[in-house]
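Quick one: structure for this chain?
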Amino acid sequence: MSVSQAGRLFVVLKRLDRKEEFGRFPDDCLKRFRSGRPSRRVDRFAVILDYLRH
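Got it. Here's what it folds into:
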């Protein structure tokens, strides 16, 4: 999903009054989900875990 697609999805969810959070990690892409800088990987997993816990 591109950033523009994610942005559109975010707007739709917000209009539906859903709990949403739009997280962006500069200089990263979805292909770097399993690679990339370790600190960003930790941050990304923390965001995902927080979402799944609530």
